[in-house]
Amino acid sequence: MKKPLAKPAKMRHNPPAMGVPLNQNTKSESSDRFLVGGGIPECIKPDYSRRKFLATAGLATAGVIIGAPRVESAFFGLIGDKPVPGIPHAWVQAKGSDVLRYARFVQGLNLRNITPRMVLAPHFKTRGRTQNTLPPKSYWRKMAPTLKVIDKMVTRIGAPLREITSAYRSPRYNHAVGGRSKSYHMQNMACDIQFRGISAYHVAYVAKQLRTQGYYKGGIGRYSRFVHVDTRGMNVDW
Question: How far apart are CA 227 and CA 157, in angstroms?
């Protein structure tokens, strides 16, 4: 008997992996760096690793933080440059935007009887060729206690304040007007004031009355046409 012919062995056919071009073996797959399920090479695909994402986010946050002070300063600069009622534009042209900022500081004290113009006017006086200046910004707050005392004096006297004849004096201007070498005007803590129809004697009396009642400690100087008031922290009279 003839032996039956053996069936030819079935050839196994492995379909190419997804993303691998036909007629290309797996060895070339690693060399071309194809991704499974697509035809985008890894060498040109962006790397969205967690580390790089956090680094990018950190840089963006730092940029916002660094830029914030500039935005803030610009915002408050716009507020400080807004016009203040009673302050002439010529004053701003002469001494810059700090005129408005100092006026707004005085306005923020909520004084009932004293306007920003009254406080700033003495800073535009001249004696000979020497012109007074605005106080340094670090001195602005020193004037607040003195202005509050004078504001209370106006209420108690019951007459309007005519003028603040002197407030802050620069050292050069203080020398030009013959001020004392250690004058508290140069510390922005003193004012010379006049009232309408009220004698300097009575104004000084009210200033001493408030001081005795504990409203402040400071100096009181009575002159023929005005009264000096300061809040130096100790009581002195002349």
Answer: 14
Residue 221 to residue 207: CA distance in whole angstroms:
10
pTM above 0.70, yes or no: no
Reported as type and span, the H/E element at residue 54 is helix 50-80
208: left (phi over 0), alpha (psi -120 to 50) or beta: alpha
Q: How far apart are CA 22 and CA 11, in angstroms?
A: 18
DSSP line for 63-83: HHHHHHHHHHHHHHHHHHTS-
Residue 2 has, within 13 A of its CA and on its CB side, a CA count of 3
Q: Nearest to residue 159, comparing CAs of 185, 191, 197?
A: 197
Residue 135 CB partners (closer than 8 Å, separation 6+): 102, 123, 142, 143, 168, 188
Q: What is the pLDDT of residue 82?
A: 81
Percent of the chain with pLDDT over 90: 65
DSSP state letter for 21: P
Whole-number Å distance between alpha carbons of 165 and 192: 5
Residue 134 and residue 144 in contact, taking contact as beta carbons nearer than 8 Å: no
- Segments making up each domain of the chain, as ranges: 117-237
The torsion angle over the Cα atoms of residues 203, 209, 211 and 213, rounded to 10 degrees, is: -150
Q: What is the pLDDT of residues 83-121, one digit of tens each?
A: 899 999 999 999 999 999 999 999 999 999 999 999 999
CATH topology of domain 117-237: Muramoyl-pentapeptide Carboxypeptidase; domain 2 (3.30.1380)
User: Residue 18 and residue 45: Cα distance in Å, rounded?
Assistant: 18
